[in-house]
Amino acid sequence: MATSRSGILNFWLVFQVLAACADAHAMDASMDTWSYFYTHLMSIWLNRFYIYSCAAFGIGIWICFQFIATKAKKQDEKSTEKLTPSKVTQDVLINGYTMPKMKEVYVAGVKVFYGSQTGTAKGFATILAEAILSLNLPAEIINMRDYDPDDCLAEEATRKNICVFLVATYTDGQPTENAAWFCKWLEEAVNDFRFGKTYLKGMRYAVFGLGNSVYVDHYNTVGKNIDKWLWMLSASRVMTRAEGDCNVAKSKHGSIEADFDAWKARFLARLQALCKGEKKPCSGNCKKGKCKSKGKQSKEGSDHEQRVSEQENTEVEDLFETTSEEESGAEEDGSRNSVIDVEDLGKIMGHMKKAKKECELEEEAGRTGPSQQSSGKNEESERREMITPGLRDALTKQGYKLIGSHSGVKLCRWTKSMLRGRGGCYKHTFYGIESHRCMETTPSLACANKCVFCWRHHTNPVGTEWRWKMDQPETILREAIENHQSLIKQFKGVPGVRVDRFEEGMVVKHCALSLVGEPIMYPEINTFLKLLHRHNISSFLVTNAQFPVEIRNLEPVTQLYVSVDASTKESLKKIDRPLFKDFWQRFLDSLKALAEKQQRTVYRLTLVKAWNVDELKAYAELVSLGKPDFIEVKGVTYCGESSASNLTMANVPWHEEVVHFVRELADLIPDYDIACEHEHSNCLLIAHKKFKIDGEWCTWIDYDRFQELVQEYENSRGSKTFTAADYVVKTPHWAVFGARERGFDPLDTRFQRKNKTKDISGC
C-alpha cells in the first residue's frame, strides 16, 4: 500500500515538473525546434482521454456495420438455399447478375367427382385418379353426395384445381341418387340472379358422361346439363365434353370402357399441357405443321372463346327470364327461368314467342270484354285453358309444378334454407311461421297488372276477369300438397339438411298464396281458403288492390295482404301498369274494403329508388284510408334484365335507406311504430300500437288458436266473429327492431355466401 502511494506521488511530482517546464518554455519567446514539438506532444498527452473516446466510438460504429452486413448476407444465402430444383428452371442474366426464375404452378391438383348408380362411374374415377397420381399430381376422388356445392364450389375458382365430372344418366334422364342434390343446386344457381353470370369464373373443368343411346330422348342428359350449367356460370372447359355409351352397337370405340380409355388418354395429354402453362392446344391449322406463335395464338383463341361465351350468355339471358318468388324476394330456385340446352334454343324460342303471343291475345280479349265474345263461349265446356301448351312448356322449364289448367306450386328458397338450419324468411321473424313448412302456391297464374318489378317478366296470362276453364278447389289443394311434398323429398340426404325439419317439412302448416298472378281472381277462392283451414293450414293471401268487391266478399284469412306499390295515381300507373282503366278508383276502394276486415291486414310497400321513395305524406294518407294492422316495407328485388322493364340495380335501395324511409313514415302515422326487422330480406315491419301490449310487441300469430276461431266461425255460419287481437303471441326479443340479431333467429346458423359480388338485393 505504501509502495502504491509512493508511485502515485512520484508520478504526480514528475507531472508537475513537466508542466512547470512546459509553462516556462511557452513563455519563452526564443523557443527552439525541440521546444515546439515538446509543447504539442504535451497537449496530446493532456487530451488523451478525449482521443481515446473518439477512437472507441469509431471502432464501435465499424463493428456494428460489419455485423449488420454479415447478417444480411447470411439471410440472402438461406433464402437462396430454400429454392428447390423443382422451383428453379433457368438462370436469367439481368444487369450482369444471374437471378433464379420462379416457375408458376398452373395446376395444383385434380378433383374427380363421380355420380354413379351401379358403380361404373366410381370405378372410372378410381382409374383416372391413379393415372393422375402417376403424373406426380395430387388427385382427390369425391362422391357428389358428400360434397356441398353451396359451401365449396366457388372456392374451386381460386385454387388452380381441375375439376373432372364423371356422371351417369339414370332413369328418365335424371341424375343418379348421389348426384341429385349437386345437379339441383347447380341448376338453381344458374337460375338465381344473385349468383351472377361470373360466379364460377376461374374454375376449370371437364365432363365425361355415362349413358345408353338406346334411350334416345335422355342419352347423357346429366352430363350435358352439368357441362352447360358450369359454362353458364363462367367456368372454363379444359376440353370438350365426352360421352361414353353402354350401347355396344353405337359406342364409338366398341364399349363404354373403351370410350373412357380414349377420353382418359386425351385428358391426361391435355392435363400435362396445362401443367406446362399451355392455355389452349394448337388448332392444327398452322402451315407446315409448325406453330409460329403459340403464346399469341393461345391468347387470341382464349379471347375469342371468351367473347363467344359472353355473346351466347347475353343471347340466352333474354330468353331465360327471372322467376323469383316474392315472399323472400328473388328465391334461389327460380329467379330466372331454367337454363335451356343450346341445342334446343330454336325450339324453345318458338315456344316462348308462342306463349308471348298467346298472352297478348288473352290481354286483348280481356280489354275487349265479354260483349264481343260469342254467346256460346261463356259456357264452361267451351272456355279455353289458362295454361296454353307454349306457356306450360316455358313454366315447366322454369321449375314450376303446374296443377290443372291455371294453378302452380314452387319451392321457396327460404323453405330450403330453414330445412338446413340457415334461417327463415321475414314472415318467420315478423309472424312466427315455420318457413320449412310453408307451401308457396297460387290458384290463378293470371294477373290484372304488369308491374315493372314482376319476377315473371310478364310471360304469365293477364286479364281483368276470369274467362278460362276452372278446376275444382279440392283438386288444386290435393295436387298442390302432393307436388310440394315431392319437392321436399328431393332434399332427403342432402348435406346439412336437418332430419327433424325434413320430417316436419313433409307436413304443410302454412300456405302463401303469393307465388305469381292474382289468387283472388279465382272464382272459388273462398272454398279454397276453407279447405286450407280444414287441413289446419294457415293462409297468407296477397292481392294487388284491383278487386274491391272480391276483397269485401272474402272469407276470414289468417293474414290478408294488399300491395301498395305507389301512393299517387301517376306513380301507380307507372309502376304497376294496371289493365283496368279505372285502376285508381279500384285501388282506393280496395283499401277501404280492407279497413272493414276484422282479421289481420297488411299493407305491402315495395320501395323502388327514384320511383316511389319520396311519397311519404301520400303513403300516410293511404294508411289512414285502409287502417291496416301492419305495414311491411321492403326494398325492391332486382330480378334481372327484361325488355318489359327498365328496372336496374340502381333502383334497389340499401337496407339503411329502407330504415330511413320507415323511420320517416312512422313519424307521420302516430298510431304506428316500428316493430320488427329482417335485415337479410331488406324488410321492416311497422305495426299498429294496439299490438304493443304491456310495453311488448305481440306481432306473432297463435296458429292453433286461429284454427279454433275460424272453425267456430264456420260452425256458426259467420255469426261468431273474431278479430286480429284474438290470436296474437308475444314477439321474441331477437325479432324486435333494434335487436342485435337484426331479425335472424339465433337458433339457426347464418350462412354467408361465398360470392364475388356484393349482394344488395335484400333477398
Element layout with pairings:
Layout: H1 2-27, H2 33-46, H3 48-81, E1 88-94, E2 97-102, E3 109-115, H4 120-133, E4 139-143, H5 149-152, E5 161-168, H6 180-191, E6 204-211, H7 221-232, E7 236-237, E8 242-245, H8 256-275, H9 294-319, H10 345-368, H11 389-397, E9 401-403, E10 407-410, H12 413-419, H13 426-431, E11 438-442, H14 473-489, H15 499-505, E12 510-513, H16 525-534, E13 538-543, H17 548-552, E14 559-563, H18 569-576, H19 583-595, E15 600-607, H20 616-626, E16 630-635, H21 655-668, E17 672-678, E18 683-688, E19 692-693, E20 696-697, E21 700-701, H22 703-715, E22 728-729
Parallel strand pairs: 3-4, 3-5, 5-6, 6-7, 6-8, 11-12, 12-13, 13-14, 14-15, 15-16
Antiparallel strand pairs: 1-2, 9-10, 10-11, 16-18, 17-18, 19-20, 21-22
What do you see in this structure?
- The chain crosses the membrane at residues 50-69.
- It catalyses: N(1)-methylguanosine(37) in tRNA(Phe) + pyruvate + S-adenosyl-L-methionine = 4-demethylwyosine(37) in tRNA(Phe) + 5'-deoxyadenosine + L-methionine + CO2 + H2O.
- It comes from Platysternon megacephalum.
- This protein has 22 helices and 22 strands.
- The protein has 763 residues and is an alpha/beta fold.
- Mean pLDDT is 78; it is low at 1-5, 80-98, 281-349, 365-379 and 755-763.
- The chain is flat, with a radius of gyration of 39 Å.
- Among the domains are: 109-275, Flavodoxin domain (Rossmann fold); 400-735, Aldolase class I (TIM Barrel), CATH 3.20.20.
- Helix 4 (120-133) runs parallel beside helix 8 (256-275), helix 10 (345-368) crosses helix 11 and helix 14 (473-489) crosses helix 16.
- The chain has a ten-stranded mixed beta sheet with strand order 9-10-11-12-13-14-15-16-18-17, with helices on both faces.
